[in-house]
Amino acid sequence: MADFVQNSQTKSAIRELAEPIADVATFNSIVQSVITDNPFACVLYMSAGVTHDPVEKTKEGYTVKVIYQDTDAKIVGNLSDKFSTIAGFNAGATAILANTALSTAHGGTPVRDTDNEAFSATLKCHDPNGELYMVNFSRGRVTLTSYSDEAIRTRVETWADTVTALA
Length: 167
Prior knowledge:
By secondary structure, this protein is α+β, with helices and mostly antiparallel strands. It has two domains: 5-43 and 51-58 and 118-161; 61-116, no CATH class. Helices cover 27% and strands 37% of the residues. The protein has four helices and ten strands; from the N terminus they run E-E-H-E-E-E-E-H-H-E-E-E-E-H. The chain has helices at 24-37, 86-98, 100-106, 150-160; strands at 5-6, 13-16, 45-47, 50-52, 55-69, 75-83, 109-112, 118-126, 132-138, 141-145.
């Protein structure tokens, strides 16, 4: 299995994945499992009088990629569109593929370029020791930032070793 390797003195570590995460459903399943199952044993905390969940999604983005092909399957155009939710990503992809005006303007038939689509989500986690750290998931890597206790990296790495898509 791939290991997280500390990449600077500011305590961040990156795990480059052997293969990109296959699709948005798999990606969402991984992210939601961290939020729901709390495998890093994070704890509730209060900040400015507001109670925060142990793990919170602070940012996410999903990019649809479409290529337009002529009758010889030659690429005659492309489109990239970013959405802030998976629902928007899925609805946007459907709308783009159905947009005949875009197809006509490109002079080709739209085809999803799923291999080049991008997904990312950042989770904020509150460790029992009081530290707040971030885990950022993207299609090709997992980044752990803003931690100082090596036990945090060990917990994240141990969990990641159990997730096939994060090998």
